Amino acid sequence: MLSPEKIKIIKSTVPVLEEHGEAITTRFYQRLFENHPELLNVFNQANQKQGRQQTALANAVYAAAAHIDNLEEILDNVKLIAHKHVSLGIKPEQYPIVGENLLKAMKEVLGDAATDEVIDAWSDAYGIIADAFIGIEADLYQQAKEQPGGWAGYRKFVVDKKVKESNVITSFYLKPEDQKQIAKFKSGQYLGVKVEIPGKDYTQLREYSISDSSGKDYYRISVKREDELPNHPEGVVSNYLHSHVQEGDVIEVSAPAGVFTLDTESNLPVVFISGGVGITPLMSMFNSLVESNSKKDIYFIHAAINGDYHAFKDHVKQRSSEKENIKSLVCYEKPTEEDRQNQSFDKEGFIDLEWLQSVLPSNEAKFYFCGPLPFMKAIYGALKKWNVPEENIHYEFFGPAGTLDVEVDFEPALSDHDE
């Protein structure tokens, strides 16, 4: 436990961290990779180039300072990141490395403001936070290994089938090379994927949502090809999977993880709202409900550029035609002429609150959404304006966690979820 004096010191740094947080984390990552280039095998360099990881860590440091006297308030976010760490194989011995370089980056950026007392207090605080992560992750590693069909680390899987779902999304059906049982998972969870790409100096680790229900003899991940755009580098792993990984090839996979999961205890209607490849974890939840013959009212709302970019559209449409309790709704930003002729969408443009209120009977439902960050901010804002209780709002970030409103999310240094 931190002493009252050290808690007071940590809290006194909140305004400084708010102003200089990203400068500190930018310097931290420079130091980290200079001193420990082996960690380039863990981090997604696209997120580094875009500044997303630096921003996420700055938010983490700020949140830790703001809640240092009651870390229970950020426990849910600690668990979220712990799941990511386990899927990436983060080890206890890596935490002191992060701590050392973070404190030195603080000292360099803040200069005289980072007194010996401040650094000492932050050193103790980091140790407490690191111990919390290490303890939670040890339990998760044990659970992953000891569950039926489970395993530790990475396991080899064969690409049994490769299916094009849209112009930019392809599904990979993965079966274990050893032909043994595979672990069940909670709908909404993801897999860690490790690939060695020719010409790349470092191992590439990514996390991809499982896009089908549990209990089958395969896992399915559905990956979007990320083309290079202004201020958006190409997806190294996603493009490699699309262009070079074929049926019969072998990739290494870590056990299912993640806390964005379907609430199976609630009796409320369920509303899924997806944008683009954000459909993948929601497909797992949707298929799970359909296959369990759930009697809940289910609304599946998907937004895409147009029909050419709409994955799983026939599957969802067919299921909704088979069951009275399922309704499928589609929003296309720029529908094609074929989309118009086939009347294959319900709204043109973007999803907004007025439209949601016109197609949903009420705000009394469990809402699950996922997609690009601007999309998620719009959906979150609409649901809050509609007075949906926070406990009924569930969402997943692809990549380092961002923020959907003025509140700061907690995201430690060793984190990476890239779809």
UniProtKB/TrEMBL annotation:
The chemistry this enzyme catalyses reads: 2 nitric oxide + NADPH + 2 O2 = 2 nitrate + NADP(+) + H(+); 2 nitric oxide + NADH + 2 O2 = 2 nitrate + NAD(+) + H(+)
Every Globin domain range = 1-138
Q: What is this protein called?
A: Flavohemoprotein
Q: Where is this site: Involved in heme-bound ligand stabilization and O-O bond activation?
A: 29
Q: Where is the FAD-binding FR-type domain?
A: 152-263
Name any one GO molecular function: nitric oxide dioxygenase NAD(P)H activity
List the source organism.
Bacillus seohaeanensis
> What cofactors does this protein use?
heme b; FAD
